[in-house]
Amino acid sequence: MLTTRGQRSHKIYNPEFLSLLVKFCTGFDYVPDLVVNPDFRIIVEFTFHEIEKGWYPMAHTCENTLILPGFLYTNGKDFRKKMREAVTIYGTNFSMA
Description:
Helices cover 31% and strands 20% of the residues. It is of the alpha+beta class. The chain has a domain at 39-97. A three-stranded mixed sheet has the order 3-5-4, with helices on one face. The chain has a two-stranded antiparallel ribbon with strand order 1-2.
């Protein structure tokens, strides 16, 4: 379990989802060797512009950036659903190879 500020516990996603999340954010199927590439990061940005309802999380693979809408999702269930859909659809259909 992963604890956030000691307040709530969250189930860690399965390895398949984490692999797709890395691919969604970076375009690669794997995390690079951190010994060889110690500066590797996935940056999470929040956008607070007005966004249409139903907007999905986005990623810029060139910068290893995940962009999330700041105020769009009113609960964790909606966020997890949109995140899972975006990662599953784009994470399986996009490749840097």
